[in-house]
């Protein structure tokens, strides 16, 4: 039976799993669970993942959730996956686990909370929260600095000095891609000072093309829609967007 | 060269790593990094872990941080560790990864934030935050319900129906132990309704004795000290403790 991947391409961990499957030639069926339509709360999806989160997979009778656990499982269970994604070497593997563990309460918490409270909340029927966005921006900027100065230290194009990407690169880059939804000025302010991070995003995109852009298409489309809503931006855009949620046009 | 474990026993992930080493007869040297004395910010410790967090390990020339990554590395690198801690079977291993990944933004975020903002902040030179504590309590209670109803479903004493503990049991139980620092009424209110969770904590403690209690001694000592500060508690204790931080006696 074919692997089933339950995903919403608007969710960054979903995209990481989809890109991984495509790049590695894994034969799978993508089943869309639209978060904005609250499909993750349906009884059908609850039977797949009682935690009601995407992504989730079903491989035969085996069900699994949490994107990092899924990426590790796929890299281990599908023999065609190249070693660099999840190396057999114990210490290299351990350092990848370490980056993935760190990710949760740092880059992910920062980026996801900023984007949610600056752009996405109204599209999900939630309130924007300016204070939460400001606090999360501090976490996000501190996380980007750590990636720039600790994990991208050295000459490798990828995290931990790697010459080829691992599942940690894919997971973290898909998270930073969510920042595409911010207004360009805000995005430049946050990402601009982190030159190695920008290069690393580009390297990961190149190493996984054309699948990376194909899976991110829905994000680029929403980015365009959001920018068309506010054609002539004054200064302090993030603040103005928080005060005037663009709910009406979605 | 002996394994070095940099830890503060007041930190729940530090305790998980220490209990694991002791239970599995791993020969190691414990190096205390006192968070309350800001020793994690020293240049010496920065050379061990540039992220400035405990626990961290040094095994020969290999340095590693993040407790989950450390537990997985130790279970894989030290041949004496029994399989149940981190099973070789791919799907059992994947489900343990899934619980550990979930832990970060759920039980850990909830429990650590509640305890920090109800009891610990003043001891670390920080402000208590009543709103943060209330929000975190919702995350904590929801997390405990998920553990009770999803992962402790069935007849096994441990997570995922296990008959013996895994690194996920140890990590999550060490986190719940931090709730010992709350006032008894608050602790009973939060943990009381979760009978299976209580039994699971006891099972994990029994499966790792006498090391579990030995490593948690510092927590029991602080619990006693905190309870002596407020001998006759009125109702609404958590609230009153937030308003009157017990800084003076520490």
Automatic annotation (TrEMBL), chains A, B:
Residues 89-226 form the GST C-terminal domain. Gene3D superfamilies: 1.20.1050.10, Glutaredoxin. The keyword Transferase applies. It catalyses: RX + glutathione = an S-substituted glutathione + a halide anion + H(+). Residues 1-82 form the GST N-terminal domain. GO terms for molecular function: glutathione transferase activity. Keywords: Detoxification, Transferase. Residues 226-250 are annotated as: Disordered. It comes from the Eukaryota. Its EC number is 2.5.1.18. One of its GO terms (biological process) is toxin catabolic process. It is an enzyme of class 2 (transferase). Belongs to the GST superfamily. Theta family. This is glutathione transferase.
């Amino acid at each position: 039976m074919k692997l089933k991947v339950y995903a919403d391409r608007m969710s960054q961990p979903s995209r990481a799993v989809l890109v991984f499957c495509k790049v590695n030639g894994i034969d799978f069926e993508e089943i869309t669970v639209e978060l904005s339509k609250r499909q993750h709360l349906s009884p059908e999806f609850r039977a797949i993942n009682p935690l009601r989160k995407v992504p989730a997979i079903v491989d035969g009778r085996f069900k699994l959730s949490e994107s990092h656990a899924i990426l590790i499982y796929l890299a281990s269970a599908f023999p065609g996956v190249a070693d660099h994604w999840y190396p057999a070497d114990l210490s290299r593997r351990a350092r990848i686990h370490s980056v993935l563990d760190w990710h949760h309460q740092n880059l992910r918490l920062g980026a996801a909370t900023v984007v949610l409270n600056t752009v996405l909340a109204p599209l999900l029927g939630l309130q924007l929260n300016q204070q939460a966005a400001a606090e999360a921006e501090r976490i996000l900027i501190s996380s980007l600095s750590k990636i720039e100065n600790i994990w991208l230290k050295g000459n490798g194009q990828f995290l931990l000095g790697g010459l080829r990407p691992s599942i940690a690169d894919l997971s973290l880059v898909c998270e930073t891609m969510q920042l595409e939804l911010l207004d360009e000025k805000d995005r430049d302010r946050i990402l601009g000072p982190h030159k190695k991070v920008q290069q690393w995003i580009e390297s990961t995109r190149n190493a996984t093309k054309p699948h990376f852009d194909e899976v991110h298409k829905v994000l680029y489309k929403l980015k365009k829609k959001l920018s068309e809503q506010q054609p002539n931006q004054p200064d302090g855009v993030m603040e103005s967007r928080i005060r005037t949620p663009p709910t009406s046009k979605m």
